Amino acid sequence: MDHLNRKPTVPLLLLGPKNSGKSALLSSIIKQEKPRVLYLNCDFFPEDKATDLMAVIDTYNFLLENIPPGQKKPIIVIDEANALTLWKRKDAVALKQLLEFFKRSCKEIHTAHIVLATSEFFLVSWLESQGFDENYKSWDEGVRAIILKV
After folding, report:
1. Residue 150: which residues within 8 A CB-CB, separation 6 or more?
2. Distance CA 85, CA 127 (A)
3. Whether the Cβ atoms of residue 10 and residue 131 lie closer than 8 Å to each other
């Protein structure tokens, strides 16, 4: 994952069917880069609890603002990212702010790598409708890595 050793510039979407190796790839990233990884599995956010998205954004902002100088940039992993669309019904404004946070963290202020993972192919078109575009595609053991242009 050479992408994660460079300056953060664009989010990365890992897309592939169930049992295609996404979790294995994420586990490998987490094992290799454990001190840098902030991991959130959206499957563990029941829809009725997915209401305080601003608290998630505020926590990530706080963590990113307090990284010691010279330290490698953190990697924010959002597993089962398709569940983010649940927030669309609960708090569309906060969801938009989270997506803006992803863009800002990578493209504008380069404070963190963002890795989204899902088996739901509709997420690509949903992200495109939110201002992300596919820029680069590659395949590795059935997992499609898409670098999102913002």
Report:
1. 10, 11, 102, 103, 106, 107, 131, 132, 133
2. 10
3. no
Q: What are the start-end ranges of the E strands in 45-87?
A: 75-79
Which runs of consecutive H residues, i.e. helices, occur in 2-120? 22-33, 53-65, 86-90, 92-103
Q: How many residues does this entry show for the chain? A: 150
Distances (CA, A) of 102 to 21, 24, 61, 88, 96: 24, 23, 11, 16, 10
Joined together, the tokens standing for residue 141 give 């053991």
The whole-model pTM stands at: 0.80
Q: Which two tokens stand for residue 1?
A: 């994952």
- What is the phi/psi pair of residue 43, to 5°? -65, -25
Structure-block tokens of residue 44:
């563990």
Q: Encode the chain (150 residues) as per-residue pLDDT tens digits.
A: 677 888 888 888 888 888 888 888 888 888 998 888 988 887 766 555 545 677 777 888 888 888 877 788 899 998 888 887 777 666 777 778 888 888 888 888 888 999 988 888 777 777 777 777 765 444 444 445 555 544
Bridge partners of 83? none
